[in-house]
């Protein structure tokens, strides 16, 4: 039996064009939507499908009223400039940027084409928008800012499952694709009496070395932030964590679905579905300058009970009760 999620993801990965593909037969009146994606079709087919579903629910028919132009950076941020330049040359009517880094590249490339950012970490601080309430330029969309409170919450949840409790050493992974300041984890760790250290992952080939280093340092648990390299390699990250018997809390639920222990975050698919509403308003004539930036209203706790058992962990009943979803 195939689930609806598997069917949608398979459909998306089968129909999403290659990084530089364009539509061979574009209807004259169809509006072009450029999607500047940080990872690969295989890693992000489900969020691309969520965006397409959102537009379809608003009355836009792919191939008739809208045409998608996908560009995939494949976790290589140096490609953003060339990919967005190609979208501008098309030209497209609106650009959807799948995270903060491609949104910045898009803003550098055009001041006229509307840009809808998704999952931006801190759009005001980096200059994407003047303010969340009044963006003021050609960029708007959705921000998933991980506040100090959210980072502290992630560490608190992780601490609840650790046998060592406050004596634990927690590693925070980071890579060249990390675009947010992770030092707040160290501050939150001090308050929780956890010792936080940072471990660099330079590339996908560096993952084995990083996990071996954590084993040598006797790290008790790990935090995996949401950058594009780690997201693309989430299956391998989760496997290595299980092999090294490292409980972890992850930036998005996709890691937990791939076999990570637990995640606490907003849902990426919902953000991309909401991005479709922004695109719909822009295509109908609303200026992005007047569309307030939206932040998540709900964060979800997902726990993989199968992974907990493989790690020899007993998840406290109090934590299971608070979970939004438990993967058996």
Characterization of this structure:
There is one protein chain. The chain is α/β, with parallel strands linked by helices. Helix content is 40%, strand content 18%. The chain contains 13 helices and twelve strands. It has helices spanning 4-15, 41-57, 80-89, 100-109, 148-161, 183-191, 207-216, 228-232, 234-243, 253-257, 268-283, 305-310, 317-322; strands at 31-37, 66-72, 94-97, 115-120, 139-143, 169-174, 195-200, 221-224, 248-250, 262-265, 300-304, 325-327. The strands form two sheets. The protein has a seven-stranded mixed β-sheet with strand order 7-6-8-9-10-11-12, with helices on both faces. Strands 2-1-3-4-5 form a five-stranded parallel β-sheet, sandwiched between helices. Helix 4 (100-109) links the parallel strand 3 and strand 4. Helix 1 packs across helix 2 (41-57), helix 2 (41-57) crosses helix 11 and helix 3 packs across helix 4 (100-109). The longest helix is centred in the first third of the chain and has 17 residues, at 41-57. It is elongated and about 60 Å long. The two termini are 18 Å apart. Mean pLDDT is 88; it is low at 1-24.
Describe the secondary-structure layout:
Layout: H1 4-15, E1 31-37, H2 41-57, E2 66-72, H3 80-89, E3 94-97, H4 100-109, E4 115-120, E5 139-143, H5 148-161, E6 169-174, H6 183-191, E7 195-200, H7 207-216, E8 221-224, H8 228-232, H9 234-243, E9 248-250, H10 253-257, E10 262-265, H11 268-283, E11 300-304, H12 305-310, H13 317-322, E12 325-327
């Amino acid at each position: 039996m195939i689930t609806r999620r598997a069917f949608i993801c398979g459909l998306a990965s089968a129909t999403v064009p290659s990084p530089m593909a364009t539509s061979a037969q574009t209807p004259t009146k169809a509006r072009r939507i450029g999607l500047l994606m940080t990872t690969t079709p295989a890693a992000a087919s489900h969020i691309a499908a969520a965006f397409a579903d959102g537009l379809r629910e608003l009355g836009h028919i792919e191939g008739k009223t809208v045409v998608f132009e996908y560009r995939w950076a494949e976790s290589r941020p140096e490609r953003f400039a060339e990919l967005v330049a190609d979208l501008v040359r098309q030209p497209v009517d609106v650009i959807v940027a799948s995270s903060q880094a491609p949104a910045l590249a898009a803003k550098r490339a055009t001041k006229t084409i509307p840009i809808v950012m998704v999952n931006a970490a801190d759009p005001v601080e980096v200059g994407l928008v003047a303010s969340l309430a009044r963006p003021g330029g050609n960029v708007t969309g959705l921000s998933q800012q991980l506040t100090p409170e959210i980072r502290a919450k992630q560490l608190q949840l992780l601490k609840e499952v650790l046998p060592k409790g406050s004596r634990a050493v927690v590693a925070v992974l980071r890579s060249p694709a990390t675009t947010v300041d992770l030092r707040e984890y160290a501050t939150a760790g001090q308050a929780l009496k956890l010792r936080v250290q940072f471990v660099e992952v330079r590339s996908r080939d560096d993952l084995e070395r990083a996990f071996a280093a954590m084993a040598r340092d006797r790290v008790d648990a790990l935090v995996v932030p949401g950058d594009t390299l780690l997201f693309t390699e989430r299956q391998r990250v989760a496997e290595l964590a299980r092999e090294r018997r490292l409980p972890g809390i992850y930036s998005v639920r996709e890691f937990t679905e791939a076999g990570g222990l637990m995640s606490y975050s907003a849902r990426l698919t919902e953000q991309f579905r909401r991005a479709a509403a922004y695109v719909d308003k822009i295509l109908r004539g609303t200026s992005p300058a007047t569309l307030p930036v939206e932040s998540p209203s709900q964060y979800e706790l997902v726990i993989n009970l199968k992974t907990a058992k493989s790690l020899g962990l007993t998840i406290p009943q109090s934590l299971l009760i608070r979970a939004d979803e438990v993967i058996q």
